[in-house]
Amino acid sequence: MVDLSTAAKLAARLEPCHSFIYFAPEAGLNFHGLGLEGGAGYFASRSAALGPVSPEVVIATFYNFKPSLVRESMAGVWDVTDPAAVLAARHDAAAKALRRMLGEDADGPDIATIGELCREAAVTADPAGRALFAGHAGLPWPDDPLLVFWHAITLLREFRGDGHVSALMLEGVDPVEALVTHVASGLARLPKALLQATRGWTDEEWAAGEARLRSRGLLAEDDALTPEGTAQRERIEATTTRTAMAPLEVLGDDGVSRLSDLVAPFSTKIRNAMFGR
């Protein structure tokens, strides 16, 4: 049986190996070539696996973005391009960015091993109740081992992310409150100003979210989590990890530990390349 802390550590190490795509200049250039500017590239590329869906589907599955930002960004997207073209552009950008950041390691044996281990886990995952995971799980597997690495990690990431949204909703945490508590918990890897701006919430809306949390005894006046708020956030994270365990059990605790150790240096290298460290 896989230990929860081992699974949580793996999730943290896998995250940069997927999320670089949202910062990579290669992605912006490819989406620009399809006529997608600004947030349109992000929303269209992450949702393209679901098909040419409406903004409302994106709002529901992405959860913590302001609805009006999603509607504005998605307006006319599927009139200028289609999901297949967007997915091809995304995969091309992922491969180019990984080869830029990892150099010759991008085509090394460890990348192939990580990809196969993640694939072994991901193909067993039950898509029930996990819309983003299900959409990506329905895509064909790439032939390039580097893209197998990225696609398999993407599947595990979206599987976990769908469960995280469910955990937030079960705790009664709305999209703004989710961001506020994420920042207050110290778990956020991006600064508050960037998280708020990229999710589209105004200062007034952010402050209103803080006020709601304070009224429930979850946030202190200094914007730190109260003991009750800390306990709730810990429950959310524990529920997220627990409900993401099933595919990892295929690998077992030793397999997950091995995967975590293998991916750690690549995770660090990608994170450093993303943020210039």
Secondary structure: elements and pairs:
Elements: H1 4-19, H2 25-33, H3 39-47, H4 55-62, H5 67-74, H6 77-80, H7 83-102, H8 109-122, H9 131-137, H10 145-170, H11 175-185, H12 192-199, H13 203-215, H14 227-242, H15 246-249, H16 252-275
Helix pairs in contact: 1-10, 1-16, 2-7, 3-5, 3-7, 4-5, 8-10, 8-16, 9-10, 10-14
Helix count?
A: 16
Shape: globular
Specify the biggest β-sheet.
Answer: none
Assign a percent range to the helix content. over 70%
The overall pLDDT average reads: 96
Which range does the strand content fall in? under 5%
Which stretches of 5+ consecutive residues score pLDDT under 50?
A: none
In terms of structural class, how would the helical and strand content be classed?
mainly alpha
Distance between the termini: 36 Å
Q: Measured on Cα atoms, how large is the radius of gyration?
A: 19 Å
Listing every helix as H and every strand as E from the N terminus to the C terminus, the arrangement reads HHHHHHHHHHHHHHHH
The count of strands amounts to 0
Task: Sum this structure up briefly.
The protein is mainly α and 277 residues long. Helix content is 71%, strand content 0%.
